[in-house]
Amino acid sequence: MSAGELPRFTPIGRLRTPFAALADCPRNTRALDPAPICRVEVAAGYAPGLKSLEGFSHLIILYWLDQAGGADLVFTPPFDPQPRGIFATRSPRRPNPIGLAVVELEGFEGPDTLLVRHLDCVDGTPLLDIKPYLRTTDAVPEARMGWLEPKERANRAP
Amino acid sequence: MSAGELPRFTPIGRLRTPFAALADCPRNTRALDPAPICRVEVAAGYAPGLKSLEGFSHLIILYWLDQAGGADLVFTPPFDPQPRGIFATRSPRRPNPIGLAVVELEGFEGPDTLLVRHLDCVDGTPLLDIKPYLRTTDAVPEARMGWLEPKERANRAP
């Protein structure tokens, strides 16, 4: 693959959250009650692409983890005694730092701004894509979570 | 944002599927029974990042839709009478053509190759990221699917 064939992506907007810096980002926004309202702002020209979103209760947001720093292929998470492969974690320090969040769509603030819950990234994070969440292909409530199973984690010595 | 700040992503492997061309890709791989086994091949050097994946039943695969062609912000899907915004669809013709699939992990074929079900992209599609699927944040079985609700589509005149 030549350099000319590398993917070229362009931010299409910004994510607005209450988290000013990486250190403020929650490890799990589902643990925040109430979950704060965040904003998905699309840049000028992209608003027509939001047409027909209003009937979806949930969306998938992809964004560029521009403050993640370099990648660690194997690292020991702070809450775990063992090294883990990056692809078995949701750490932002990935070879391609693309973040993913399943968010609840609360509504439109304007033609180019969505109100959502359950973003956990830094304020100002560049937006890459918005996809409708499809329970028919995206929801797997019985999925097993390997080393991240809550029971396994609770049973492990700190 | 200057050009120097644009996201720079690099394919980290390839997806191997039975679908040789776009026209062969199924609209919904969940409809294929049995779903074919596909391969996620990571490039040399990235295999250590797969450590600890073995306990997860499902993964999220992100890939570069390199054959998608240009973006349509608003378009009329072939099975729908109305124009829809691109962000309310899973069409590959997106401003940033990043594909997403929730796949079932069947196992390892080797240290750098995963066997999975439910990929629906063209054979050879460049891989961008592998994430563990977390039912605690990614599974929303009650999500409403707007204009893509099966009932709404069934009730609509062809």
Low-confidence stretches of chain A: none
Going by helix content, strand content and strand pairing, the class of chain A is mainly beta
Shape of chain A: globular
Instruction: Using a beta-carbon cutoff below 8 angstroms, give the protein chain pair with the largest interface and the number of residues from each chain.
Output: A-B, 71 and 71 residues
Spatial order of strands in the largest sheet of chain A: 1-2-7-6-3-8
Percent range for β-strand residues of chain A:
25-35%
Query: Separation of termini of chain A?
Result: 45 Å
The biggest sheet of chain A amounts to: 6 strands, antiparallel, barrel
Order of helices and strands of chain A: EEEEEEEEHH
Characterization of the model:
Two copies of one chain form a homodimer. Chain A is globular. With 158 residues, chain A is mainly beta. Chain A is 6% helix and 30% strand. The termini of chain A are far apart. The first copy, chain A, contains two helices and eight strands; from the N terminus they run E-E-E-E-E-E-E-E-H-H. The interface between A and B is large, with 71 and 71 residues.
